[in-house]
Every structure is written in structure tokens, then in C-alpha cells.
Design a protein that fits this description.
Layout (H helix, E strand, L loop, with lengths): L2 E5 L2 E4 L4 E8 L7 E7 L6 E6 L6 E3 L7 E6 L4 E6 L8 E8 L15 E2 L3 E6 L1
Parallel strand pairs: 2-11
Antiparallel strand pairs: 1-3, 3-8, 4-5, 4-9, 5-6, 7-8, 9-10, 9-11
């Protein structure tokens, strides 16, 4: 049974930082590209970042580029999202997701991912 479990969310002031982590089990972690999505109240789930199987390639939404950094540790089956210079508009539930394919514009589409975590709340106050 595949499980993705996010942690690290919380309340932070604008300009602050948070580090999210996602622990994976039940899958060959190094065979899966990983991604982070987020969903704010009343909005659709949106792509945030993706990282390739080895961690050697990453891709970010324009809204977080330069502020967020995705990384992974295949020995520990974890993927992290370091979030700096947070803004109130970053407030959302953040989800990690896994799929086999890394590249391609479909990486932005939530429906193309095979497995999802339960999400962790990030709230940025102004």
C-alpha cells in the first residue's frame, strides 16, 4: 500500500520560511518523479514544483520560482519543499504527489499523478 505523508506546515508571517517534507512508503521511490501541488479555499489544485527521479532536475511554477526549492533523498524516501519569502497568497493546503513520468507539460496536471498525500496546511499572515 502506497502512502505519502506530508509534514511541516503551519502558520508563518509574510516573508518567513517553512520546510515541508513528504515521506513515501510502499513504492520504489527512486522510480517516481515527485511533485508538490497546493489548493487554496475555493480554488483548483495547482502545480507548485516537480522533481525528477534522481533529483537532478526540477521545475517550478512561475509564482514560486526563486522562492521555493524542491529536493529529495532517495535513501530516506523523502521529498522536501523549502519555501522562503512566503506571501499571503501562498496560503493553501500543500500536497505531495508521485508519478512515473517527470518530463512533459502534463506534469502540471493533477490528474496525471498516481499517488497523493493527505496534505498539510500552510497559512501565511500579512
Amino acid at each position: 500500500q502506497v502512502q505519502l505523508v506530508e509534514s511541516g506546515g503551519g502558520l508563518v508571517q509574510a516573508g518567513g520560511s517553512l520546510r515541508l517534507s513528504c515521506a513515501a512508503s510502499g513504492l520504489t521511490f527512486s522510480s517516481y518523479a515527485m511533485a508538490w501541488f497546493r489548493q487554496a479555499p475555493g480554488k483548483e489544485r495547482e502545480f507548485v514544483a516537480a522533481i525528477s527521479w534522481s533529483g537532478g532536475a526540477t521545475y517550478y511554477a512561475d509564482s514560486v520560482k526563486g522562492r521555493f526549492t524542491a529536493s529529495r533523498d532517495n535513501a530516506k524516501n523523502t521529498v522536501d519543499l523549502q519555501m522562503n519569502s512566503l506571501k499571503p497568497e501562498d496560503t493553501a493546503v500543500y500536497y505531495c504527489a508521485a508519478r512515473r513520468q517527470y518530463a512533459g507539460t502534463s506534469a502540471l496536471a493533477p490528474t496525471t499523478y498516481d499517488f497523493w498525500g493527505q496534505g498539510t496546511q500552510v497559512t501565511v499572515s500579512s
